[in-house]
UniProtKB/TrEMBL annotation:
InterPro entries: DinB-like, DinB/YfiT-like. It comes from Hymenobacter ruricola. Residues 18-175 form the DinB-like domain. This is DinB family protein. It holds the Pfam family DinB_2.
Length: 188
């Protein structure tokens, strides 16, 4: 896929995630936002807080990589993948039904959360859209983004952008499932 098509697809996906949060979650009652479908499951706000925690790391890391890529020129070659990048993206794709465990510091289970989580999520999405726009002039195949859990490993800029987006898609789908479960319970 060409870099412009790749970035356009990611931009559309992030805009859709942002719209879903506005239309599906913003008007929900705070009690419902914090209700878990099961004791060990995340609530709607816990899912979004998990994404906020990742965004707090990856948005600045992506911005730093983009600032450094000012020295490089945009590549017209297809977006490439390393073994680590391909594995990371495929593991997080929403279609991958295999459950993953999260790192302890990224697990919001039991956190006291309020509407500020939704506002922060929206801010992170707006920032990610800006970063995707800036990436149009960058070489997406340069390895410049350290992996959050082991910073000696680096992803290519394109891989990191896609990883962040598919990770968010995966958890927003989780939020929609939580919401559907809670609504079904309320209807009974």
């Amino acid at each position: 896929m060409t870099p412009s098509d790749f970035l356009a697809a990611l931009h559309t996906a992030v805009a859709d995630l942002r719209a879903t949060a506005h239309t599906q979650f913003a008007a929900l009652d705070p009690a419902l936002l914090n209700q878990r479908p099961a004791p060990a499951s995340w609530s709607i706000l816990e899912c979004l807080e998990h994404l906020n925690r990742y965004s707090r790391y990856y948005n600045p890391a992506l911005a730093k990589a983009l600032a450094k890529s000012g020295e490089a020129t945009a590549s017209s070659s297809e977006v490439g993948y390393s073994w680590l990048g391909r594995k990371s993206v495929e593991m997080m794709r929403p279609a991958n039904a295999k459950k993953s465990s999260t790192l302890k510091h990224m697990n919001p289970l039991g956190s006291r959360l309020g509407a500020e989580v939704l506002a922060e999520f929206d801010q992170h999405q707006a920032r990610l859209l800006e970063l995707l726009d800036r990436a149009r002039t960058a070489d997406l195949n340069r390895k410049t983004v350290p992996v959050e859990f082991f910073r000696l490993l680096k992803l290519r800029l394109g891989e990191a952008l896609e990883f962040v987006v598919v990770h968010q898609q995966r958890h927003v789908q989780q939020v929609l499932r939580v919401q559907a479960t809670l609504r079904a319970e309320l209807a009974c």
